[in-house]
Fold Crp/Fnr family transcriptional regulator.
Amino acid sequence: MSASPFDLLQWLPERACEAFHAAARSRHFNPGELIYSQGDPGNQMYRLVSGAVRLSVARSDGRELLYLLFQPGDCFGTSSLVDGEMRPQTAEAHEACEVEMLDRVGFDQLRSMYREFDDALIRLATRHMRLLSGLFADAHLEAISARVASRILATARSFGRTTPAGIALSVPLTQSELALMVGGSRQTVNKVLQQFQADGLVTLSGVQIIVLSTDRLRSMLSSE
């Protein structure tokens, strides 16, 4: 499992990190429990301590895009505290998780006390913009098999654990969820995964995906 790329605290000095932990309060969420909904007012930001959080966007016609699975250390829910707008996504517990919650009062106090906190918010927003740019390019320029390979690799970086059989994803990832990530149908994703398995790239067992060759999966991103 790689270090969290969306951890606000990685850009803060120790004294600011300590102030963050002191101002935040802990909360547990059960699998599938809603943290906040798209369109809600945003009065807290969150830092994931353990588990996984699912971030998604829904259209008025009911179609949904699974944007990201957050790993421990990742911070989310900051944009509504910065711009005062409603939540742009829905966040729910993908599995049992613990989070640190920082309300608007604590958020504003940290911004006023530590200039580095604003700098960290800018860095975090930039990370998200780079991710969105990559996802947009993938959706319009990459074949479905390359998009599936890209999302499996990204999930393996965040939640992969090395086993004798290969790199196992430590969070369940259904074919329907993978389809929501890549903007395809479950049937199409199933065909892609079956081909990956036949080619010796992954092993499938229910919702468990074991990556057998990250290099070969990565090579698909530029060869399609």
In short: The chain has a mean pLDDT of 92. Residues 115-141 form the longest helix (27 residues).
